[in-house]
Structures are given as structure tokens and as C-alpha cells.
Write a structure and sequence with these properties.
The protein has six helices and 17 strands. By secondary structure, it is of the alpha/beta class. It has one domain: Rossmann fold. An eight-stranded mixed beta sheet has the order 13-6-15-16-4-17-5-14, sandwiched between helices. Strands 1-2-3 form a three-stranded antiparallel beta sheet, covered by helices on one side. Strands 7-10 form a two-stranded antiparallel ribbon. A hairpin with a 2-residue loop joins strand 2 and strand 3 (36-41). Helix 3 crosses helix 6. It is globular and about 65 Å long. One of its GO terms (molecular function) is catalytic activity. Residues 23-266 form the Nucleoside phosphorylase domain. This is Phosphorylase.
């Protein structure tokens, strides 16, 4: 799965024995990538689009693992543009309570959560999650990535060659790396604010922020399907002094994320895994 057309396009270039099917405006592309059977689809941007598309593919195909490939905003100051981050857990950090203001600050209802520090009137809330065998939903903030998938990603990370320049001659100032582990957070908000970026990093110890991954992780958890996301940094979510870098570095980020997906699939094929 990918959200943006550039990400989707890179993956389509890899596929063999292609067959297309369109349902409810969503194109499903089936075939193989280096011998591994896959279904490719473009979810569109945002948490609702991502969740809807994830459930659609699970309802129509026999899926063992959902892999999300795309760009993201870097919030960890140690990371640079073009690097690929593979978090080991994801959270919907922008599921929030908007608190009332009082003379003493902000006040939240007694039945709401305050597990994490607020950003002004915004208090992050856990999701209500349903899963097989549990009719009553549970409150859950983090969604863990399968350990076996992370191990495979770690092996693949030392074999992949990441791009540093686009065909148009735009190059990164530092050679990009693959970083496996850490936290990712998602919400339907494009972040381009240095102060809020610092809050996200300090509060959730997050490496990256995007607009889809945690939604797909929740759908995968509810359906009992494994999930992993490869996110390459197209911008710093407001952390640089210049204008947001996404349009300049999206192509490199999309290539690097897709390249890591291919290396991940190849690593599974070598091990005889789907």
C-alpha cells in the first residue's frame, strides 16, 4: 500500500505478470515482485482512506502481511532527509480530546484519558479497538509490528542501496541510512511546525510522523494480519528553517522506501517466507 501517486508508481514498475481490477474507484494490481505474490493499491492520503483501503484489500484477497511504503516527516533530530525508518510500533497520536479552558488551565472530563502530556487544549486519546474473540473493544494506543517482519527488515537493511540524487540532479547533503526500530505516529494532519514537531518527539519518542500507517496497523490488528511500514523522510515536519522540503525530496524518498520494500521481499524469498 501507498498513499501518494509517486510512491505507487515506483512499486508498479517492479511488478511482473500484472493483472488490474478496479472496485469502488480503487485499483488493485496483482502480480509478483521478484517472485513474491503481491497486491498493490493506492490508499489515498489520510487515516480514513488508509483504513478503508486496507479493509477493502483484506476483504477481497488472501493477505498474510500488509506492507506500507511511503514518505513521512522526520521528527527525530538525529534523522536526515531520504533515510528510511521502519518503526516497531505505531500510534494514532492525533485522536484527541479538545479540552475546555478554565482559570487554572485546561480541564478534561473524568472519563477521558490523560496518559500523555497535552499540547495546549489537545489531549491524545487511545483508540477503541475491536479484534477477533473480543466483542467488547479495548482501549489501545500503540500497535506493535510483528517481530519476525522487523527481523527480516533488519537483514534487508544492510543489503539495500539507497538513492542520494534524483534524475533531475537534486541530491541529499548526507548519504541516507535505514533505521529499524523506534516509534511512528500517524494522524490526518500535515505537520509543518517546529514547536509541534518537538512536542511529538518529546511526548511519543517518535522518529516519524505520517497520515496513514497507524490506521492500517489498527485494521491489520483487528483482522489478525501482520503489518510493517517503510517510511522515507521527504521533509522534517517543520524542523528546517527553509520552506517545507517535501516537493523537492519526495521522489528520492519514494524511491528509497520502495527500494527497501523490494529488499524486504527478496529477504523473505531467500528465507522461503511469503
Amino acid at each position: 500500500m501507498s498513499a501518494f501517486a509517486p510512491e505507487w508508481g515506483v512499486l508498479q514498475e517492479m511488478i511482473e505478470d500484472r493483472t488490474d481490477a478496479v472496485e469502488n474507484g480503487v485499483r488493485f494490481v496483482t502480480g509478483t515482485i521478484d517472485g513474491t505474490p503481491v497486491v498493490l493499491l493506492l490508499s489515498g492520503v489520510g487515516m480514513v482512506n488508509a483504513a478503508m483501503s486496507a479493509q477493502m484489500v483484506l476483504d477481497r484477497y488472501t493477505v498474510d502481511t500488509i506492507v506500507f511504503s511511503g514518505i513521512a516527516g522526520g521528527v527525530d533530530p538525529s534523522l536526515t532527509l531520504g533515510e528510511v525508518v521502519v518503526p516497531d510500533r505505531w500510534a494514532s497520536y492525533f485522536n484527541v480530546l479538545i479540552a475546555r479552558k478554565t482559570t487554572d488551565g485546561y480541564s478534561i472530563p473524568s472519563f477521558m484519558h490523560a496518559e500523555y502530556p497535552n499540547y495546549g487544549m489537545l489531549y491524545p486519546q487511545p483508540e477503541l479497538v475491536r479484534s477477533d474473540g473480543h466483542e467488547e473493544p479495548e482501549h489501545r494506543f500503540w500497535f506493535e509490528v510483528d517481530e519476525g517482519l522487523l527481523t527480516r527488515a533488519t537483514r534487508a537493511s544492510v543489503k539495500v542501496a539507497l538513492e542520494s540524487c534524483t534524475g533531475a540532479g537534486v541530491c541529499l547533503s548526507e548519504a541516507p541510512r535505514v533505521v529499524v526500530g523506534g516509534n511512528g505516529v500517524s494522524g490526518s494532519a500535515f505537520v509543518d511546525n517546529a514547536e509541534f514537531r518537538k512536542y511529538v518527539f518529546d511526548t511519543f519518542d517518535a522518529s516519524v510522523v505520517d497520515m496513514e500507517s497507524a490506521a492500517v496497523a489498527q485494521v491489520a490488528a483487528t483482522n489478525g494480519v501482520k503489518f510493517i511500514a517503510f517510511r522515507s523522510l521527504s521533509d522534517l515536519a517543520g524542523g528546517s528553517e527553509a520552506e517545507n522540503e517535501m516537493e523537492t525530496f519526495m521522489a528520492i524518498a519514494a524511491e528509497n522506501s520502495a527500494g527497501m520494500v523490494r529488499a524486504f521481499l527478496a529477504e523473505g524469498a531467500e528465507a522461503g517466507q511469503p
